[in-house]
Design brief:
heterodimer, A: about 350 residues, alpha+beta, Rossmann fold, OB fold (Dihydrolipoamide Acetyltransferase, E2P), 2 domains, six-stranded mixed β-sheet, five-stranded antiparallel β-sheet, 8 helices, about 25% helix, about 35% strand, B: about 280 residues, mainly alpha, MetI-like fold, about 80% helix, nucleotide-binding (chain A), ABC-type transporter activity (chain A), ATP binding (chain A)
């Protein structure tokens, strides 16, 4: 258990800079998820923390101690790889106890610690098997076991669930979360899946193009995304981002493509100002006195209805939790509470705090 | 559809089978000829048409193993081969591992350079080696021949092992580093055991090359270190009456290699097919 601080970290490969001055503070025992699209630098940042890549400039501190120039083995970290990286010629027990062996622990200590970790992860009956004899989920658990056995200051997870099928992924997600609750160790977890980020994290770091776009709790990022990128990235289905201007009355939004959406209260930006308006699909409701729209497509998921609405040529996605009697082509009226609307500046793409 | 295509497929399989049998037969002909000649009296060995029914004799096999210093030359060959394998494979593996772990941009030119060395005619290398050997007063010593064979063998060993190391994910090196291994420990404890099938293949190829090598052995050895291929060549010459002896010598030279091949067959097949199927 230890806090982890990254200060002004940059990384360049030759002339290509992939991380641009990253600053992150991770508290002791916090579950921090680095999330972003492919190529955003999240895995590189994790590898910098692990010591698998050399930091170009900046500093990484674990438990207050600068580790930027230390060998991975001296950083007191454990890492779970996307490919699990289990040693194929070693049994599960040997895999899990390998770091202890390298540390020169006695056979008795190795056995006890491996058995303890195996009990936590329900791996007891598999200790004598080889990785090739295990299923994907079991391999994943062994990889976690190998990390737990070390009792490190920080756990690093590099997209550990991406090789698992959807059902197992959900199961392993809760297992990792429970594990974190039990061990209370600082975790840095990399994923490109925002659902994973939302469900597991205490703190999410959204990255793009080697920059941090926003750091905050899952609900902070959901309720108050700092910019258009975070707004579009967090949430599924993605937030509707509509271009246009605030109406003369301050309570309506004139879509760039034509048409108007009316709201029940002022939108919090000056009348006539050009903005990007963000509406979460789940904030859209149908109301008799709402703005006119036509239903283009209905996608029932079982629990919800995903509906694509056409508002004067602009597509708006809505999610309804209730079972509605609607059909494609039907004319409806949509309503969105003004306090649920997000406004962004079209130039800077930053959130507008309210004029 | 499968019922219609089945007879056609079967016919193709048979044609391929017959073709491969013919190919194998043609390839084995010299060996068969050597075996028969070694069992024949020289008078029977050169009758036209060749006789298949003759009175077999082990006289020449016994003569090869008991006279003509065959065992002495065999020992020379084994010393040179073992020396070559024990230097070439570890050194080649280390080089190959290093090349497999550097960026492809840098590895490419190194591998191309090695390939060029491999394409170099050995005859052109034999002369400088002879000059250097004379200068260093090492002609007719084991180290000179072993070093020369390591030099010509190394590019192939590195190429072969490079392929094997590339198939071992880098994540394993990194996991080992995080688990507390130095680079050397990661190589020795984690990577090397996984490369064992590849090393077996590399060792066998290295053994075959050094055991059968003729040109360097002819140029660089003398009475003390002459190896079997050079010695056997002297058994025959133009004297037809010695050809049965020469053939028996050829069979004798093959036997150690056949034994090694049979012992390592399992590893050899695994090594040659490694990476063919994703595990």
């Amino acid at each position: 258990m230890a806090p982890l601080t990254i200060q002004q970290a940059t990384k360049s490969f030759g002339g290509l800079q992939v991380l641009h001055g990253i600053d992150i503070d991770m508290n002791d025992g916090e579950f921090v998820v680095l999330v972003g699209p492919s190529g955003c630098g999240k895995s590189t940042l994790l590898r910098l923390i692990a010591g698998l890549e050399d930091i170009t400039t900046g500093e990484i501190r674990i438990d207050g101690k600068g580790v930027s120039r230390l060998h991975p083995k001296d950083r007191d970290i454990a890492m779970v790889f996307q490919s699990y990286a289990l040693y194929p010629h070693m049994t599960v027990a040997e895999n899990m106890g390998f770091s202890l062996r390298m540390r020169g622990e006695s056979a008795e200590v190795q056995r006890r610690k491996v058995e303890d970790a195996a009990n936590i992860l329900d791996l007891g009956p598999l200790l004598d098997r080889y990785p090739r004899q295990l299923s994907g989920g079991q391999r994943q658990r062994v990889a976690m076991g190998r990390a737990i056995v070390r009792d490190p200051k920080v756990f690093l997870f590099d997209e550990p669930l991406s090789n698992l099928d959807a059902k197992l992924r959900v199961q392993m997600r809760s297992e990792i979360r429970s594990l974190h609750k039990a061990l209370k160790t600082t975790i840095v977890y990399v994923t490109h899946d925002q659902i994973e980020a939302m469900t597991m994290a205490d703190k999410i770091v959204v990255m793009r193009g080697g920059h941090v776009e926003q750091i905050g709790s899952p609900m902070t990022l959901y309720d108050a995304p700092a910019n258009v990128f975070v707004a579009g990235f967090i949430g599924s289905p993605a937030m509707n981002l509509l271009t246009g201007r605030i109406g003369a009355d301050g309570r309506s939004f004139e879509l760039a493509g034509g048409g108007t959406i009316r709201f029940d209260a002022p939108l919090g930006a000056a009348a006539g100002r050009e903005v990007i308006l963000g509406i979460r699909p789940e904030d859209v409701t149908l109301a008799e006195d709402g703005s006119p729209a036509t239903i283009k497509l209905i996608e029932p998921t079982g629990a919800d209805l995903h509906v694509n609405l056409d508002v004067s040529g602009t597509e708006v996605t809505a999610v309804f939790h209730e079972r509605l009697s609607i059909e494609e082509g039907q004319a409806v009226a949509l309503a969105v509470p003004a306090e649920r609307v997000h406004l962004f500046d079209p130039e800077t793409e930053a959130r507008i705090a309210g004029d | 559809m499968s019922a219609q295509s089945h007879p056609g497929r079967q016919r193709t399989t048979w044609l391929i089978f017959i073709g491969l049998c013919l190919f194998t037969f043609v390839n084995l002909m010299p060996l068969l000829w050597a075996v028969l000649t070694s069992l024949k009296d020289p008078r029977d060995a050169f009758t036209i048409p060749p006789t298949l029914i003759f009175e077999p004799t082990l006289k020449y096999h016994i003569e090869v193993w008991t006279e003509n210093d065959f065992v002495f030359y065999l020992m020379n060959s084994l010393i040179v081969s073992a020396g070559t394998v024990f230097i070439s494979v570890p050194a080649g593996s280390l080089a190959a591992y290093a090349i497999s772990r550097i960026p492809r941009r840098s590895a490419g030119p190194i591998l191309s350079a090695l390939f060029t060395i491999r394409m170099f005619p050995h005859m052109l290398l034999a002369i400088p080696f002879f000059v250097m050997g004379t200068f260093l007063d090492m002609i007719d010593t084991y180290p000179l021949l072993i070093l020369a064979l390591v030099a010509i063998n190394q590019p192939f060993t590195i190429w072969l092992m490079h392929g094997f190391f590339l198939e071992i994910p880098r994540d394993l090196d990194e996991a080992a580093a995080i688990d507390g291994c130095s680079n050397w420990q990661a190589f020795r404890i984690v990577i090397l055991p996984l490369a064992k099938p590849g090393m077996t293949v590399a060792a066998l190829f290295s053994l075959l090359l050094s055991y059968n090598e003729f040109l360097f052995a002819l140029v660089l050895t003398g009475t003390d270190t002459k190896t079997l291929p050079v010695a056997i060549a002297a058994f025959g010459g133009e004297d037809i009456s010695s050809w049965s002896l020469s053939a028996a010598g050829a069979i004798g030279i093959m036997l150690p290699i056949v034994v090694v091949m049979l012992l390592l067959q399992r590893h050899l097949v695994r090594g040659l097919t490694a990476g063919a199927v994703k595990g």
